[in-house]
Write a structure and sequence with these properties.
By secondary structure, the protein is mainly beta. It has one domain: UDP N-Acetylglucosamine Acyltransferase, domain 1, CATH 2.160.10. 8% of the residues lie in helices and 34% in strands. The strands form two sheets. Strands 1, 3, 5, 7, 8, 10, 11, 13, 14, 16 and 17 form an eleven-stranded parallel beta sheet that branches. Strands 2-4-6-9-12-15-18-19 form an eight-stranded mixed beta sheet, covered by helices on one side. A hairpin with a 4-residue loop joins β18 and β19.
Length: 174
């Protein structure tokens, strides 16, 4: 981790030391950050809500000059996913090798399939599934669930096999 004075990690959040965090990043309660995840906030801050899962090699990069990237609660960023979106709501699943391009916005309860893209400046409405090689869209009928059991399991198992970052509690002023 570089520039730790601008990084705030809540006490109940698990961040493996192999993760890379640059710039102003605030990660709230209950998140799990796997090894080799990259948070790059060198161009603007990244604010992460509660109970998100960032799997191995996920890249979260704010490419907007000075504008914050906001990630809501209970999202899953799967292995090798990339996110440069300006906003990601809550309860979204970003699939393996999926890519949220610069400036796009993802609402709540969306599912982005493996290797799918949400293109620059595109705004997804709630409950949209993006799937297939042509990035087809459809509205889903059921909302995504909060990954409670997965979070509980990861919070127990990751500390047994990985070193974790020391954390600073997120204060109310932030």
């Amino acid at each position: 981790m570089t520039d730790s004075s601008r990084v705030s990690i809540a006490t109940s959040t698990i961040v493996c030391v192999e993760a890379e965090i640059k710039g102003e990043v605030i990660i709230k309660e209950g998140c799990v950050v796997h090894p080799h995840v990259v948070f790059d906030a060198t161009n603007g801050p990244i604010y992460v809500g509660e109970n998100n899962i960032f799997e191995e090699f996920a890249v979260i990069r704010n490419n907007s000059e000075g504008q914050p990237m906001i990630i809501g609660d209970s999202n899953i960023f799967q292995v090798h996913s990339k996110c440069s979106a300006k906003y990601v709501g809550s309860r979204n699943v970003i699939g393996v090798h999926a890519h949220l391009e610069d400036g796009c916005s993802v609402s709540d309860d969306c599912s982005i399939g493996p290797k799918c893209r949400v293109f620059s400046k595109q705004n997804l409405e709630p409950s949209v599934a993006v799937y297939g090689p042509s990035n087809s869209h459809r509205i889903t009928s059921t909302p995504n669930l909060t990954p409670t059991l997965q979070l509980e399991f990861l919070r127990k198992i990751l500390p047994s096999y990985h070193h974790l970052y020391n954390k600073k509690k997120v204060t109310a002023a932030q």
